[in-house]
Amino acid sequence: MGTRFGARAAVLGVAVALALPVVVAGGGAAQAAASCNLTTGPYQRQVEQFLGRPVDGKQSAADCTAIRSFQATHGITPTQGYAGPLTWQTMSTMLAQRAAGTTPNRAGDCPVDRGRIACVDLTRQLSWIQDGATLTYGPVPVRTGKDGTETRTGLKKIYYRNIDHWSTLYNVSMPYAQFFDGGIAFHSTTKSMWNPPGSGGCVNMRSADAKAYWNLLGQGEDVYVYGRKPGT
């Protein structure tokens, strides 16, 4: 297969804000009663607060409808409106991403002495590009490997790029693929970045972010993966 390289973009010097979805509840009590699990979940209060619902720790038809909408948006199953561990884990990850703001490397975990580098924080499911200590793109949400096919940690280098890659292993398209660790690559996907359980090891990205990474990175550049994805 031939490799096609995108033009490297100039350093913008401006962080790209992390965009999280706004969940809008819909449907009435009759619909919720017919299709929702009206049992109070173990994370009821936390989920109510996240969704901007009245926080009383008791499941209602309206609560259930709002939770189901969130679950459906991100492919969380069973999509029954129950405030269980997986739903709260997904919300907790979103909260951690929001807290990162425009200083994702505040703790200094990603090296600042290697020039241009793409950082991947598995714990917060975040990635960004920095030049030394200067943030040049991101942070953006990513979807990394699931339990059993985890994205491997450590310092890597991009060794192969293919803008229209096709995976013969998974029989799927991998646009803007940049491989940095065996079969593990940055690439775009149409799935939600918060869709559990995760990828087969690759770092999934939204299309606009994968395209930006394609333009900002090149063969031989550094990638640093650290942390541990919740649930792995």
TrEMBL record:
Pathway: Cell wall biogenesis; peptidoglycan biosynthesis. Keywords: Cell shape, Cell wall biogenesis/degradation, Peptidoglycan synthesis, Signal, Transferase. Residues 1-25 form the signal peptide. It holds the Pfam family YkuD. The keyword Signal applies. Residues 115-226 form the L,D-TPase catalytic domain. The active site is at residues 187, 202. The keyword Signal applies. This is Murein L,D-transpeptidase. It comes from Streptomyces nojiriensis.
